[in-house]
Amino acid sequence: MSVFSHKEFDQHEQVSFFQCPQTGLRAIIAVHNTHLGPALGGCRMWAYENDEQALNDVLRLSRGMTYKSAITGLPLGGGKSVIIGDSRKIKTPELMKAMGRAVDTFAGRYIIAEDVGTTVEDMKNIHASTEHVVGIPMEDGTHGGGDPSPTTALGVYTGLKAAARLRLGKDNLQGVKVAVQGLGNVGYNLCKLLAADGAVLSVTDVQVEKLDMAKKEFGAAVVGLNEIYDVDADIFAPCALGAIINDETLPRLKAKVVAGASNNQLAEARHGDVLRGMNVLYAPDYVINAGGIITVYYEFLARKTGAAYDRQQVLDHVAKIADTVELVTKRAQQENISTAKAADCIAEQRFKGQKACKAA
Ligand code: NAD
To answer: What tens digit of pLDDT does each residue of 92-106 get?
Structure first.
């Protein structure tokens, strides 16, 4: 297994491998870049088929965190960790404490949080071995930001509205048709906000009970899993899977705006150019799904300074996602590049200190 010549290796500062035979822990922590601050990013526990997949994931995800924090204006770097194994089968408090010891070796250069396969309870166990963890109740009994998903949904809603203003010329969402793929923690909360604004919703999910709820609560039209791409919508909001903007789905999309929570929506970078060619405004995923990292950052700050978690600061920062969508769209127009490239370029300028964007 190569690291330095791995296709996802991108000048990562540190990639460390950990194992603990007593607890069964096998983990990788990757710190991509700490130019702007300590690397904060979640811990994913997954039954990877092999070590190569785990390495691939941690390299890609840690890099993504650098870009997300930089474009969001947070003084944080990018990092991520993966634990190899099925969280339902091998997870124990001891294994999580061993993970905490691994995190502690970074002495604060990497701060761990929840991700797929890990929970608040796991972070509490990690906290037994290290201070460098967020997403747990605070000493004063408050829970910091708590579940980040509603804040992520608020950020997506803010970014989606900015994109609607720019592309559809709409100041509100009354009567705007939105197709939402995935009614999970973020998608369902997003639907609540959209419905309250008078948007007309079409939704899909693999879980029938969620569809029934959305139909009842928001009057949403329910469509099949594969039909969501064909819906006559003004806005497509992917909130479930990655790589859903691809050669197969692009010719089917009717929407003029793509704005959703899913990470890595573009199957390949070139699909951002195709969207641009179709005159579809793509609000880049990591720009508008940053609400979660914003709330976790303010929890980190509160923990560090001993001050109370300040919800108003979080809301003020989330509101700036609209400005970032405008900035990215303007830069894309000025430089004749996709919004995805413009976002990458602005983020790189911030964490690499580059002066100019690379040409498309
Ligand atoms: P979740 O697991 O709560 O929800 C995902 C939903 O998608 C579930 O309801 C699931 O049934 C549904 N789904 C699965 N396969 C589907 C398919 N083929 N078609 C339609 N629906 C399908 O996850 P979440 O926390 O709501 O996150 C949604 C997306 O947003 C993920 O890509 C996640 O990485 C990203 N994201 C989440 C956060 C956060 O704070 N939770 C932050 C940033 C990014």
So the answer is: 999 999 999 999 999
